[in-house]
Amino acid sequence: MTTLTGSFRRRFRGRAADVGRRFESATLAHRETVASDAPASDLPAVDLAPNDPLLVFLQSSSGAVEIDTLELDSPGLAEMKAAGVKLVVPLLSQGELIGVLNLGPRRSEQEYSTDDRKLLDKLAAQAAPALRVGQLVRQQEAEARTRERFEQELEVARLIQQNFLPKQLPDLAGWEIAALYRPAREVGGDFYDVIPLPDGQVGFVIGDVTDKGVPAALVMAATRSVLRASVQRLVDPAAVLERVNEHLCPDMPSKMFVTCLYGVLQPETGRFRFANAGHDLPYVKTAEGSVELRARGMPLGLMTGMVYEEKETVLAPGESLLLHSDGVVEAHDSDGKMFGFPRLKEAVAHYPGGGELIELVLADLREHTGPGAEQEDDITMLTLARSPGPVTDDDSARMRQLVEFDAPSAEGNERLALARVSSIVAPLGLSEPRLKRLETAVAEATMNAMEHGNGYRADLAVTLRVLTDAESVRVQITDHGGAVADQESEVPDLEAKLAGLQRPRGWGLFLIKNMVDEAHEFSDGHLHTLELVMRLGADVEDEPENQPKGRGNDHA
Amino acid sequence: MTTHEVMTTVRRRGEVTLIDLVGDVNAQAELAMHEAWEEAIRDGPEAVVLNFEGAGYINSTGIALIVEMLASARKQKLPIRAYGLTDHYREIFEITRLADFLAINPDEDSAVTGAERSNT
């Protein structure tokens, strides 16, 4: 009886596309007797390429094939002959060649007999299905291991992400802070943070790292750490993002970057200063609807030396702010249509703020994507909602923003700015003469900003903000004139002008300062702002000291 | 609110020349106002009266244009008056001291009469 021992040696060759046709060549040593202590005498393993003609031949052969008699232009055949293979037995399962038994010479040095061949054919017929089952089991095991590794990586990414998200949100009197972080199955790079700051201020962060999985999670963790360290040393949101960018750039993997918005809330006043590194624009729910908060800046980690624009707004009682990630607006429906910014903006305008807003937006998203749709990307939302509440003495002292708009730098646009500010301010109770004075000051300040601050450049707009509290109305006019503080250093003197000692022009700043109760200038080095203040209240009108100032040459 | 480019007309009442300003008195009004002024003083009037009844928005550049008229009038010892100013712009004329060099009347008749009287 012929005893077949030896080990199966497997060689898999092929590209990924060949995996389904993996070919196994099992090399068997043929011994007539087996000694318990005798080492297995194996033939060298033979590696058959998937396109070897020998495979085609064996696929169609009816049984064991004698190698020495074969004539084929086959590297595999040549290798077999060199290895001393005498007989090959194809292993066929459901008509597919899944392996080959290679047999060396009989130890008796006799030829393989007909009985040997029959026995081997029977063996092959029974072994092939078993081998196929084994192959399938191994394949499934390999796939399971790959899946498991992938899931483990996702779990690691999830753990990193969740570990760096706030464990709890601060409890701010008069505010509702709510957040949602819902990772996609293939975890993205979303993150948010809420950071207590000195003087009761609170920092709010939302960000998104390009890429997914562990790499994104690690970059997110690094960004969050650098940001947290930076806010302890710097106050201005723009300066914080500049520092974070400088720290991230050297070690940022190629093709990765981080979009991030950082804002600082002063809970008592509702003042929210912010800078944006290329993140989706947040929305503020106001009495009139919803508005975007715009501030320019490149994403973090792309290049050093970036400068970030800093803006601010005031969240009035009843107003709320939504910070969100692109997973919301970029969710697709079954037709491939995105949820989109307009719909989210509309939702912010019409839904209540806070946690309820998040729930309602999620419901809209579910309706949009359809039931059972897999979430494409991480979804993150962070809301700050200021309680409407009854107006208290405290509330009356708080400043709220009524409007913010841009006026392109073009001659004549100061009149449009004047008209818009006037229509916003008119209901606040300024008397007609004082409203007219404010109109003139706004027009002059806007004209100055367009001409001196922006040089009448079409690509630079003047931003106007109207704010009010119980006691005053403030109009802030911002241009890109940097630290330029005073464009008209000459005090206008009509006598001198009439005598030709001064030019006829140069009345703008003089008019501004004499039309309003207060005028303040400030600059962050890039943006220059002039703030005009008019006090509200009937008694203000009659106070002599509140009459227009500067009836003479003694006012600059 | 839309901008209205100024339109000027120059007319004579006796020895007084009147310039009617209709529209915005701003940078865009410069040429029209210079031309109107030249026309107004061409025939040697005894006084010039500026009619602001139809004027809308007057800004700092418009003030400067009026200063130029005043400077020219001063050189020629030509009295100059104004009427039709709203309370707001009258206040601005006071703040800038234009009112110290340019008599302000409530209407055309009083402006013309005032100009004639001051020359008698």
Relevant CATH superfamily of the largest domain in chain A: PPM-type phosphatase domain
From the alpha carbons, calculate the radius of gyration of chain A and give it in angstroms.
39 Å
Q: Briefly note the CATH topology name of chain B.
A: Transcription Regulator spoIIAA
Largest sheet of chain A: 5 strands, mixed
What structural class do you assign from the helix and strand content of chain B? alpha/beta
Shape of chain B: globular
Describe this structure in words.
The complex is a heterodimer of chains A (556) and B (120). With 556 residues, chain A is an alpha+beta fold. Chain A has 3 domains: 3-140, Beta-Lactamase; 164-393, Phosphatase 2c, domain 1; 399-546, 2-Layer Sandwich (Heat Shock Protein 90), CATH 3.30.565. Chain A has helices at 53-60, 75-83, 114-163, 213-231, 237-248, 326-329, 341-350, 354-369, 393-396, 413-425, 432-453, 494-498, 508-515, 538-542; strands spanning 3-5, 24-31, 65-66, 87-93, 96-103, 175-182, 189-196, 202-209, 258-266, 271-277, 283-286, 289-292, 310-314, 320-324, 379-386, 400-408, 461-468, 472-479, 518-523, 528-535. In chain A, the strands form 4 sheets. A 5-stranded mixed sheet of chain A has the order 1-2-5-4-3. A 5-stranded antiparallel sheet of chain A has the order 6-15-14-11-12. Chain A has a 5-stranded antiparallel sheet with strand order 7-8-9-10-13, with helices on one face. In chain A, a hairpin with a 4-residue loop joins strand 19 and strand 20 (528-535). In chain A, helix 3 (114-163) packs parallel to helix 4 (213-231), helix 4 packs across helix 5 and helix 11 runs antiparallel to helix 13 (508-515). The radius of gyration of chain A is 39 Å and the shape is elongated. Residues 1-24, 26-40 and 542-556 of chain A have low confidence and may be disordered. With 120 residues, chain B is an alpha/beta fold. Chain B has a single domain (7-118), classed as Transcription Regulator spoIIAA. Helices cover 44% and strands 28% of the residues of chain B. Chain B is built from 5 helices and 6 strands. In chain B, strands 1, 2, 3, 4, 5 and 6 form a 6-stranded mixed sheet that branches. The longest helix of chain B has 16 residues, at 60-75. Chain B is globular, with a radius of gyration of 13 Å. In chain B, 46% of the residues are buried. The mean pLDDT of chain B is 91. The A-B interface holds A 411-412, 414-416, 418-419, 433, 436-437, 440, 443-444, 447, 492, 494, 497-498, 500, 503-508, 510-511, 514, 548, 550-553 and B 1-3, 24, 27-28, 57, 59-61, 63-65, 67-68, 70-71, 74, 86-88, 91-92, 94-98, 100-101.
